Amino acid sequence: MDCYTANWNPLGDSAFYRKYELYSMDWDLQEELRDCLVAAASYGGPIALLRNPWKKEKAASIRPVLEIYSASGVPLASLLWKSGPVVSLGWSAEEELLCVQEDGVVLVYGLHGDFRRHFSMGNEVLQNRVLDARIFHTEFGSGVAILTGAHRFTLSANVGDLKLRRMPEVPGLQSAPSCWTTLCQDRVAHILLAVGPDLYLLDHAACSAVTLPGLAPGVSSFLQMAVSFTYRHLALFTDTGYIWMGTASLKEKLCEFNCNIRAPPKQMVWCSRPRSKERAVVVAWERRLMVVGDAPESIQFVLDEDSYLVPELDGVRIFSRSTHEFLHEVPVASEEIFKIASMAPGALLLEAQKEYEKESQKADEYLREIQELGQLTQAVQQCIEAAGHEHWPDMQKSLLRAASFGKCFLDRFPPDSFVRMCQDLRVLNAVRDYHIGIPLTYSQYKQLTIQVLLDRLVLRRLYPLAIQICEYLRLPEVQGVSRILAHWACYKVQQKDVSDEDVARAINQKLGDTPGVSYSDIAARAYGCGRTELAIKLLEYEPRSGEQVPLLLKMKRSKLALSKAIESGDTDLVFTVLLHLKNELNRGDFFMTLRNQPMALSLYRQFCKHQELETLKDLYNQDDNHQELGSFHIRASYAAEERIEGRVAALQTAADAFYKAKNEFAAKATEDQMRLLRLQRRLEDELGGQFLDLSLHDTVTTLILGGQNKRAEQLARDFRIPDKRLWWLKLTALAHLEDWEELEKFSKSKKSPIGYLPFVEICMKQHNKYEAKKYASRVGPEQKVKALLLVGDVAQAADVAIEHRNEAEMSLVLSHCTGATDGATADKIQRARAQAQKK
After folding, report:
1. How far is 327 from 317, CA to CA, in rounded Å?
2. Vps16 N-terminal domain: from which residue to which, for each copy (predicted)?
3. Cβ-based neighbour number of residue 335 at 10 Å
4. Mind giving me the DSSP string for 777-810?
5. CA-CA distance, 312 to 314, in Å (whole number)?
6. DSSP per-residue codes, 509-560
7. Which pLDDT belongs to residue 619?
8. What number of CA atoms fall less than 13 Å from residue 785's CA on the CB side?
């Protein structure tokens, strides 16, 4: 344990800081870091170097080289810079490299040097040029802040949703500020800048001077500023060698330290641990590194090489040409277990486990001591927690063995925390490997979440490792393996040295029917890469036609899209393709395409019936479909034309079409309609009133109601209306007029072809029982009972039924008998029934 704490350095009485090596860097840097623009992403992210920048006079004619490395120094990308002079580099939260040029254009590159997009910071920045720039992170995303040559600030809080804000002008500012930084307060980005001894805070509305509480006197200039990783704390380095530390709101001072060095530092960053009360700042000069906090003494390290500091959630990464190290505050659990002469329960449990392995009885003594104090559960938890904060696998195993040993003597210790820590450490050790190069700490891993870590592995194209982690952690397929395979497939389609057939086959063999994978998304990526044929092949594996068709239309493969839409049976999808084809093809080609697809043609006809009647007529003409063409002209005669001559002409055209279709019935019916229309117009001219567009029956009825009985009879003869139908029409019309005298004459004009029961029914419907009785006596024997019942003569109906000896008729009469009034009639029927049964 003594050796293990050899690299621990105390800062005051309550905290230790340690620095250990993450990687031995094997990158072949030709120049010092000081001669490059450097940007390193947080959470163990990649490092970008822009070699030979324009500020070097000796290499003004040589194009710079942009290189991207993993945190372990493994090359990821290298490209010759062909754009304008770059002022600053920075990484977004999505690990996209933002390159801020002197003209205010920001170029965005991927992790492998692939160009993503670009955007401008505005015309004012273009005119005045960029003096300095900062890439910062907020809860909304990654932002860019620009200092222009006019000493004005412009910023965007989220480069993903670019909204430029021009900050207020600083009064009397004639030169660039000595230092400045971005602050995030109340979800709004601010600029803090120093001009001589004065500090100014810029927000979207105003510029206000601010004063640091408790600042030592004699300050004439601020040389450096640093905001903590969480934007909660701020540190300023003054020309007197003092470092002021306080809250980012500038309302509270935490401490102040005199480092006795007045030279401006190269970098100054915060080094603090989540939920820790200790606050420390790391300051770097050319060959010296200093850790200062709320303590009279500082921790100092000698830098053998030019180094660069990367602030992290729980510490600081320090890399140079040869090494990559991590400096952080020793976590409480580790401190209690490993500090010299510690009697913490975790320390005793670790010793007990070691003695147990030696088969020493001291193991029992240590274990009894912990149990007597009732701290065995706490000891196990301490060992589990400390294991998470250790970087080296051997120490992790030692602590986890101690925890496992202690668990054996506990009855009800929940295993979840132990199992979860083992899983987390296995994942962390895998991504910390030199070839992967993501040196995450346990705290960073928990803050980042497993989903984001998987996304970052996918960005690095480490698909096998990402899949192994998903399977090991048993993540749901949609969130894990399926999503990663989809990303792999999207990358696979970009490999243009492999044939379309081979790529499509490889993707299908790997993906199969994996849930959550959309072949249409992969095909869209292939189409975006200019591989249309590959996209079509991939769409063959897409089971959802609704996903296939839109992409096929986008690729201008409309006929194939139509076939897929028809196969799906989704009429809405077919209509979508048809309308697209209609706008894309000329009329002749469009119709020819439809002729080869009967279902599509049928659906398009339905559409045309409601939307484009002329197109429908053209379709029928093209197909020589005379039957439908005739029907079309009949509908047209009623729909649009108001003049009788036009309507008759349309009907004549329909009749001709029906004759061509050899449908003589429809042709004759159409001709009859033409005759009826002409007759109706003549009746309107002669008699007035409304006849046009009435049916033949309604026309006859209207004539009868108007007293034109002879005309009605003539019309019936002309159109060969059967006698039965004419009698019904006339009977109904006369009863409606209540012309009972004319109705009686009509009934006696000749023998009724419909009988006389309809006369009874019509009269009763008009509530005229008197007239109904006249016709009841004339009803034939087979309907006599029904007629008598209609007029309410139950007794006579009973006599007729008994006379006919008809069981059904007697039952009908009985159903109309009421208790008091028709009792005798009911008895009479019952006696007749009894006599009939005896016989």
Report:
1. 6
2. 4-420
3. 20
4. TTS-HHHHHHHHHHHT-HHHHHHHHHHHT-HHHH
5. 6
6. HHHTT-TT--HHHHHHHHHHTT-HHHHHHHHTT---HHHHHHHHHHTT-HHH
7. 64
8. 20
Residues 6+ apart with CB under 8 A from 7: 18, 19, 20
DSSP 585-611: S-HHHHHHHHHT-HHHHHHHHHHHHHH
Please report, as a single letter, which amino acid is at residue 768: N
Query: Whole-angstrom Cα distance, residue 702 to residue 696?
Result: 10
Long-range contacts, 595-601 (Cβ 8 Å, 24+): 595/622, 595/623, 597/562, 597/563, 597/566, 599/566, 599/574, 600/562, 600/566, 600/574
**DSSP assignment, residue 215?**
P
Strand 188-195 and strand 198-202: the pairing is antiparallel
Question: In this predicted structure, what is the pLDDT of residue 353?
Answer: 92
In sequence order, the β-bridge partners of residue 242 are 258
State the DSSP code for 237.
E
| R_g of the chain, CA atoms, integer Å | 48
Q: What is the dihedral of CA 825, 831, 837, 839, to 10 degrees?
A: -120
How far apart are alpha carbons 156 and 167 in whole angstroms?
10
Is the Cα dihedral 665, 671, 673, 676 positive or negative? negative
Q: Give dist(CA 616, CA 683) in Å, integer.
A: 35
Structure tokens given for 215: 């600042």
Written as six digits, the tokens of 413 are: 């210790």
pLDDT score at 1: 46
Among 107, 153, 144, 147, smallest CA distance to 131 is for: 147
pLDDT at 52: 62
Torsion of CA 363, 366, 367, 369, to 10 degrees: 160
pLDDT score of 814: 72
DSSP assignment, residue 305?
S
- CA atoms of 36 and 48, how far apart (whole Å): 10
* Secondary structure of residue 50 in the 3-state scheme: strand
Q: Could you give the CA distance from residue 544 to residue 550 in angstroms, rounded to a whole number? A: 11
**The tokens 């084809």 sit on which residue?**
581
Q: In the structure encoding, which two tokens stand for residue 365, read together? A: 């003594």
Exposure string for 674-702, b = 16+ CB within 10 A, e = fewer: bebbebbbebeeeeeeebeeeebbebbbb
What does DSSP assign to residue 167? P
| Two structure tokens written together for 793 | 């003569």
* Lookup: tokens for 759: 């006369």
Q: Are 19 and 327 in contact (CB under 8 A)?
A: yes
**Mean pLDDT per 10-residue interval, the chain, length 839 residues:** 80 91 89 89 95 58 87 94 92 95 94 93 92 90 93 92 91 90 88 93 91 90 94 94 93 92 94 86 95 93 94 95 95 92 90 91 89 91 95 95 92 91 96 95 95 94 94 89 87 82 84 78 82 82 75 77 76 77 73 72 69 64 69 68 68 77 80 74 74 73 74 75 77 78 76 78 80 76 75 73 74 72 71 70
Residue labelled with tokens 């072809």? 753
Give CA–CA dist 25/4, Å, rounded. 24
> What does the alpha-carbon distance between residue 731 and residue 725 come to, in Å, rounded to a whole number?
10
SS (H, E, C) 446-481: HHHCHHHHHHHHHHCCCHHHHHHHHHHHCCCCCCCH
> 592 to each of 312, 446, 559, 575, 621, how far by Cα in Å?
66, 62, 11, 17, 13
β-pair type (280-284, 267-270): antiparallel
Question: What's the CA gap between 603 and 594, in Å, rounded?
Answer: 10
pLDDT at residue 58, rounded to an integer: 47
Give the pLDDT confidence score for residue 80 in this predicted structure. Answer: 92
3-state SS string for 283-350 = EECCCEEEEEECCCCCEEEECCCCCEEEEECCEEEEECCCEEEEEEECCHHHHHHHCCCCCCHHHHHH
pLDDT of residue 621: 65
Comparing CA positions, the residue from 298, 305, 185, 180 lying closest to residue 242 is 298
- Token digits of residue 516: 């959550």
Beta bridge partners of 209: 200
Query: Which among 186, 158, 22 has a CA at the least distance from the CA of 93?
Result: 158
| Amino acid present at 654 | A
